[in-house]
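In response to the reviewer comment on reproducibility (Comment 2.3), we provide here a single inverse folding case reported in full, input and output, so that an independent group could reproduce the run without further information from us. The structure tokens appear first.
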């Protein structure tokens, strides 16, 4: 079992406020479709055309579908780190341990360091981040000085796994 899975984590967007916003926006456009297209009454003082309101509803439904399918998968094996931010990454990206200068679990500030959650480009040389919630992550720094932070909701378990295989490099 040379390349068995030592650590695995799947994260999804579970923030209540994200789902509340999507629910309100979808509800707004569903109400508009019902009132204007089905009921035959104008929706608002300067109503959109029927086509425009259907397009707006379609866009908000697609955005909701995107948030339903978004997930961050992280796997640690003896040969490296595997990460996928589905649906943006259809296959796992593999980072070999020998390409890494540093790898450790750390606390970070999603807003000030990366501008929020998701697929993020860090400000001021922080590198790239893949995160969906929380403020803990696996920091990777490569031999070419590029950086990648992978968010985790299991920092203790991840740190323990890295320690067991001797891959904490600070």
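Designed residues, in position order:
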């Amino acid at each position: 079992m040379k390349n068995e899975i030592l650590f695995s984590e799947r994260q999804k967007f579970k923030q209540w406020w994200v789902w509340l916003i999507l629910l309100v926006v979808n509800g707004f456009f569903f109400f508009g479709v019902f009132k204007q297209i089905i009921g035959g009454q104008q929706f608002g003082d300067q109503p959109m055309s029927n086509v425009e309101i259907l397009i707006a509803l379609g866009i908000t439904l697609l955005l909701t579908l995107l948030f339903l399918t978004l997930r961050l998968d992280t796997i640690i094996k003896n040969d490296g780190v595997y990460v996928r931010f589905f649906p943006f990454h259809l296959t796992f990206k593999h980072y070999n341990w020998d390409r890494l200068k540093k790898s450790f679990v750390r606390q970070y500030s999603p807003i000030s360091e990366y501008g929020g959650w998701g697929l993020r480009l860090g400000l001021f040389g922080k590198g790239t981040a893949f995160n969906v919630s929380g403020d803990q992550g696996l920091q990777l720094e490569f031999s070419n000085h590029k950086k990648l932070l992978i968010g985790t909701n299991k920092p203790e378990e991840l740190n323990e796994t890295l320690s067991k295989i001797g891959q904490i490099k600070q």
